[in-house]
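Work package 3, deliverable 3.1, input record:
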Amino acid sequence: MLKKIISLALLAAAMHLHADDGEKTVRDAMHSLLPMSKIDEVVKSDLPGFYEVIVSGQIVYVSADGKYLLQGNLYNVPAKKDLTAGRLAGIRAQAVEKLPASKKIVFAPEHPKHTVTVFTDVDCPYCRQFHKMIDQFNRAGIAVNYILYPLDIHPGADKKASALWCAADRNAAYTAAMNGHDPGTGTCANPVAETKALSVSLGINATPTILAEDGTQVNSAKTTSPELLLAELDRLAAEHAKKVASR
Amino acid sequence: MSRFLLFTLLAAFAVAASAQDDASQVATAALRKIAPNAKVQSVTQAPMAGFYAVIADGHPIFVSADGKYLIEGHVIDIAAKRDIMEDGLAGVRKAALASIAADKKVTFAPAHPKHRVTVFTDVDCPYCRQFHKQIAEYNKLGIAVDYVLYPLPIHKGADVKAVTVWCSKNRNDTFTAAMNGEALPAKTCANPISEIVSIAEANNITGTPAVLAEDGTMLGGYVAPDQLAKRLDEMSAPKSAAQ
């Protein structure tokens, strides 16, 4: 009996070692391809013979022998499921939840039915268009958590973001800035650099990027009216509930 | 060789071929499940066992031979630092280029060209204009340029300009004038432009300029004359010399 346990333990240890070998091979391969890349996570993929690698908020798949890297959305065909999008949503949802409300600008009704997170930039036209409907969104039961993400292509947007953050009434200053008012140059301790770095690390490269509660990116065509957005969030929530139930 | 042996060999060959056909059918069926309207252009065995490389609508798709997994995107050979899906894509693009007859292009060529490229171009695209400003340099470096007119929908009125170029008496001069921003009175006639637009779209050529080598390799976007000559020289160098 004891012998059996020892041999089982040895076998388990060997298997463990073996798994680590694959992971190390994958890490080495990533490093040879992208020496500067920062790998967040390496786990076995559903795709047999491959590891899932999370690097700068993006998902790639590397063969266990370290020879090939796949970049793109991986589907489980019989289930018609985009596994990559599902994983990415999970990672983003977690990161967004971890960021405290005190580092977001929140516009919420009293009893929200849904909450969306919007990565936003004062100088982005579609962000402004979205915010024009903020009262309607709230009335439809949708809470909006803004995360400030001034894009590098908009020079000065970072200063505007920190200035509005530092205003006495942050929400009013945000709305004013979105209506084209210059928020000035006020400064104070602010999370803009942190929220910008977080956005980049999640692989978000455009504004507005709108995430549902489960981290799924909402198609921008579904955000042009409160009715459309509400219907889309209802649909995503139902889909998410189905997924959780089937687990 | 005995007749029996020959028969056995042929039978084995047929079995191997049908196994391959079956697997490629599995790959095609898998893709259809995710993208019902996809037009499959090629299916080949991938360099790694158990996978097929599929090209559909000009997109690279990698499918497990059992049809369970599919990935739309790139497959990088890490040691060689190259996308192995490019081979299939180039093959599909080469066939697309071959389907455009020479008399449907606007050609600027030196007397004795060393290389030939096809450039999908749009009169109203800034980098297409930049490319054409240097046409004499490309030609001097031995590169013949076959332009195909591909007005993008995002450039309003570019289609009218393309037709005007096509329908003028001196196509090459009018093309150059249009690329220099000259306003031209609109002309119309039978022209190959809608055909070229559909060929480009079917092969996922979505931007201009798109510079393609004769073997279908996508060389860029805008590529400066000396860079393009260098790349084409490298591509035509014997493999052993390159390694």
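Residues 13-17 of chain B have pLDDT under 50 and may be disordered.
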